[in-house]
Amino acid sequence: MFPLSCRCRIVSGSSHVFLRTENRELGSGKLLSAVETRVEDVTDLSNYNVPNADCALLKCVLVFLGLENRQSGQSFQWMVNNFCKSDVDVGLELVATSLLPQGSGLGTSSILAGCVLASVAKCTGLEAEKLTRYCDNGSHDLMEAVLKVEQLLTTGGGYQDQMNGLVGGAKMVTCATAQFPIHLQTERLHMEHSFQECFNESLTLVFTGKTRLAKNILRNVLRRWALRTPTIKKTVAGLVKGAQDSRQAILNSDLDRVGRSLSEYWEYKKSMAGEESGAEPLIVREVLAALHRRGVVRGGSLCGAGGGGFMVLLKAAGVTTDHLRKVLAEELPEESEVSNFTWHDCKISDAGLSTRVLSSDAPGHFDITWHSV
After folding, report:
1. Residue-by-residue DSSP string for 222-234
2. CATH number of 4-182: 3.40.50, 1.10.3470, 3.30.230, 3.40.1350?
3. Its pTM surpasses 0.70
């Protein structure tokens, strides 16, 4: 199940831009919450750089792609028509849907930004070269566009979320040292079929119930990196080596080494954020310690910058998710926050971002099959 999607359509006879963000239940597609807004004038886009504003991410994409053409001196309706390449008055409808909780740590905003960029580009018929740039699976220009959208949104970030979420399979992403602008190189890693099956069987995602805005932790990371202390430089060197070790472990079909790299990665992430950052909630520390102590996991880490959201675990051979839950019930007090955890199966997706054109879609209709892997 792909958890993120965006739908875009041009509406004949309309005179505004309709924006909507939805949070739906994973599996059923049941609507949990929604925020929507009508953009009827260029000034209605002015709060695009306020992360908590209604539909801010959608506004950022539209601004980035050029809808907000203040220099034209034309009406907002002219801007919409021009953006949609229409000779008659039209409106634009944009609906972004997430099946994940906010603050999940899974790179939701970056990946969703890529979905929105591709959807708008496909729908409005951006010129051929831009369609390739923004819709081609794995295009580095799309990754750059996502970065710029997040800079407009002021949430920061880098390339890691969109590279891992919009490009399928296991991959190694690198760039040349001290070369600007940054040029990314992506190596898709071949996984033996039997190893990938074993990998998928071992993977478990755990939602801790704790959410956070990654922006706050990332600011701390950047401040510490700017100081270039010996500890930070050693940590960064460890992160680079860890990525190289993980690559080799995957190519060698060594799942135990992948697990150790995952745990080492978590220790390096905490070091980058600092002890006072809140990157590792106490309950997460207790859970990881208990699972390692009982030898039921190969490795584990919080996703994203840390601080909450989802935790990814690689189970030990022969261990089931139910076994993990039983171990935690034995190791931790009954009143611990583990009772609020939700457990999810997951797997590596060989497919990345894709776009499709639907012949019809009734307003407000939601089809969960769009999210099927």
Report:
1. HHHHHHT-HHHHH
2. 3.30.230
3. yes
